[in-house]
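Notebook entry, cofactor series.
This is the third protein in the set we're modelling with a bound small molecule. For this one the ligand is guanosine-5'-triphosphate. I'm keeping the input format identical across the series so the outputs can be compared line by line later. Sequence and SMILES below, as received.
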Amino acid sequence: MFDGLKDKLSSFREDVEESTDAEEVPEGEDAAADAAAEPASDSAATAAEADSAADADGSSADVASTEEEADEETDGSTEPSTFQRAKAFATGRIIIEEEDLEEPLWDLEMALLESDVEMSVAEQILETVRETMLGESRKQVETTGELVERALHDALLDVIAVGQFDFEERVAEAEKPLTIVFTGVNGVGKTTTIAKLSEWLEDRGYSSVLANGDTYRAGANEQIAEHANRLDRELISHDQGGDPAAVIYDGVEYARANDVDVVLGDTAGRLHTSDDLMAQLEKIDRVVDPDMTLFVDEAVAGQDAVNRAKEFNEAAEIDGAVLTKADADSSGGAAISVAYVTGKPILFLGTGQGYDDLTRFDPEALVDSLLGEE
Ligand SMILES: Nc1nc2c(ncn2[C@@H]2O[C@H](COP(=O)(O)OP(=O)(O)OP(=O)(O)O)[C@@H](O)[C@H]2O)c(=O)[nH]1
Ligand SMILES: [Mg+2]
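Returned structure with ligand:
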């Protein structure tokens, strides 16, 4: 999952390390040359100065004076503390200039865009990375690699975690029945997600009923009935051509009468531009007033999925999103962008065709995996 993006983020880390290393060597040599050229009464001290300047990042004067103090303090003692701390400070000290970042940041932006990260999201990530790296560049004893890692971690988490809430807690606290309606374009995995979520709820002790608001597509009743049979769930459906709002309403009535916790309302695939079908969604909203409307799309659709999430949210407000087929997605662009662009969280990832292939979306875990070693 998201392997392409993982590789690109790891190249960014290498790029920054390389470009700052390249910076440090000539600066160190310059400083050493300067130090050597200085008139000095004690040539040994000058050599030490030059050495430590070459080790560090060009700030020869500071380092040398710290080292001299340190030498005095450590004389006759096994305590390495001050000198070693000073040395760690000198070598761990990172000065990252804007120009060191220019090229790696440009490459990072290209990599994000190639991975289908939405433009405004990529820009936001870049801004956070730049601010973190320049603003705190003088932080002690942190290697360039660690600094890049932290900058990327914070930048990604900032955009990915927008609007996150704990879905399970929301279900636990909601007045029952809780009604959830699923929307999205054709074939993205709405019906499959409903079946998976019904199983997910069952595993956590919540009963659910399926209501087939897809009265549009031929074969939709049969398809969802197969899931209901396999999972042994009740299905409420009307004939093809019926009113989807009426079906979901009946689902809610059934749940009330039978103490069922959650109503999962399916709908036909539609484009946000199909006026008739969008009017149906409005009617569902009016008649049923669902507690949650979840937008479903495929992670593999990348930028298209991001645009559709935005358009659906504008046409008929959503509360969250489910990204399916994440198992087949290497770009990760939709997973990174949807929450930032819509202001609504991704709640689940579909990770396969089995009923158990539904994973709670955890922004922190996603960032860790994107920045992971393997
Ligand atoms: N690999 C993979 N396939 C999935 C996933 N979710 C759904 N699918 C497959 O995607 C196809 C379409 O799924 P459906 O659930 O029928 O999609 P839909 O949105 O209900 O489609 P319409 O009702 O026609 O709009 C099926 O073959 C599913 O098995 C997923 O997370 N991973
Ligand atoms: Mg369907």
